[in-house]
Amino acid sequence: MLAVHFGAGNIGRGFIGSLLHQSGYEVCFVDVNREIVDLINERKSYSIGLADDSNEEIIVKNVYAIHSGDHPEQVMSAIAGADLVTTAVGPNVLPLIAGLIAEGLKQRMATGTKPLNVIACENMIGGSALLKKEVYSKLDEEELEKADEMVGFPNAAVDRIVPNQSHADPLKVVVEPFYEWAVDRSQVVGELRVAGMTLVDDLMPYIERKLYTVNTGHAVAAYFGYQAGYQTIDEAMADPKIQSLVKNTLQETGKLLVEKHGFNPEEHQKYIDTIIRRFVNPHISDDVTRVGRSPIRKLGPQDRLVSPAAQYITYLKEQPVSLAKGIAAALRYDYQEDPEAVQIQESIRQKGLENTIYEITQIPPESDLMKRIVGEYSHFAL
Ligand SMILES: NC(=O)c1ccc[n+]([C@@H]2O[C@H](COP(=O)([O-])OP(=O)(O)OC[C@H]3O[C@@H](n4cnc5c(N)ncnc54)[C@H](O)[C@@H]3O)[C@@H](O)[C@H]2O)c1
Ligand SMILES: O=P(O)(O)OC[C@@H](O)[C@@H](O)[C@H](O)[C@H](O)CO
């Protein structure tokens, strides 16, 4: 069995590649990082360390890699013969890989009818659906009909904290022991069996619970932590003020999730407690600038800050207080090496705060939420 995985980065090697290998797949990584591609091909294996007291090491074997810029034809023929395609490249990169996937599917559909699932493992709602839309825009009528029969794009929620790595061995990746990979069963074609993957009938509760708890909590810890001058998430969480801001934010998203999806409140509190423990894992050092990366994406209307804030108002008929403060902290994120942070600061200078907030978040200009965010931003204090 062959799995083609786009993105041999932290989550690609540290999570998806590992589960695919354990499930008996040969894994073909597709990436644009020449150093990583060459090393994978030289060694045909890499090691994963578990970030806990065990020091356990897992060796992932039976892997190779293709540089998609140098050898697009090899990527296409790998997709034509693959049993599964997955991605972990970042939401903004999905449109950039859609062309290669479409070409691979064309080859595949010209010579056979074997079903194929394509799963985007990105932190977003509807990642595979977005990829499908991009891929479909490159197919003609006849190919679209065949793709409808043969190709599934099930959405997914993936959870495992994999920080940026700094080991002597550039392929090594240290990951937390916890992981979850939930996939929408209704969009799967043919058979899909991966060890550690859970097929679910309704993905929405899973993806919203994950994004609005793990990623909302993570994002506010990063943005508050950055404002306070901390380097890493565990340092930020050791500050009682920040820890309590993060917990208050997760009470708000928790109230929304319980109301919207009917989660048991006690069970949900346990879920929150587990996540807080994951953030303070002493074996992981996760930079606030990794967790806060791409603030325009994170402030998007469907993402981890603005979506739960807007839904909180809809479902609970109240204004969110902590989420508004978290959004204000994200707007103040001015890390010079993050192009999106630089862009936000430039936009605030040129167009003003309210126009910038509206452009990025779509929060209506005269709304109470807008006023609250502007107030928090203007008198920002932790
Ligand atoms: N790291 C985590 O804790 C974590 C957990 C869950 C989900 N995710 C999600 O997984 C995705 C990847 O995150 P990451 O932390 O692994 O990032 P990363 O930067 O470590 O990995 C991304 C990889 O994609 C590659 N890439 C970029 N453009 C490409 C292209 N055009 N074609 C092929 N490869 C390309 C990069 O070279 C890199 O190796 C993101 O959507 C992220 O939200 C990350
Ligand atoms: O990957 P991002 O930029 O969407 O979010 C940063 C982190 O919150 C994220 O990577 C988490 O570590 C991960 O989602 C945990 O499952």
UniProtKB/TrEMBL annotation:
Residues binding NAD(+), per UniProt: A3, V4, H5, F6, G7, A8, G9, N10, I11, G12, R13, G14
Database matches in PROSITE patterns: MANNITOL_DHGENASE (PS00974)
Alphabetical list of InterPro entries matching this protein: 6-PGluconate_DH-like_C_sf, 6PGD_dom2, Mannitol_1_phos_5_DH, Mannitol_DH, Mannitol_DH_C, Mannitol_DH_CS, Mannitol_DH_N, NAD(P)-bd_dom_sf
Domain Mannitol dehydrogenase C-terminal: from-to ranges: 202-377
Keyword tags: NAD, Oxidoreductase
EC number assigned by the record: 1.1.1.17
Positions of the Mannitol dehydrogenase N-terminal domain: 2-190
Catalytic activity: D-mannitol 1-phosphate + NAD(+) = beta-D-fructose 6-phosphate + NADH + H(+)
EC primary class: oxidoreductase
GO MF assignments: mannitol-1-phosphate 5-dehydrogenase activity
Any Pfam family: Mannitol_dh_C
Similarity comment: Belongs to the mannitol dehydrogenase family.
UniProt cross-references to NCBIfam families, sorted A to Z: PRK02318.1-2, PRK02318.1-3, PRK02318.2-1, PRK02318.2-5
Protein known as: Mannitol-1-phosphate 5-dehydrogenase
Organism, scientific name: Thermoactinomyces vulgaris
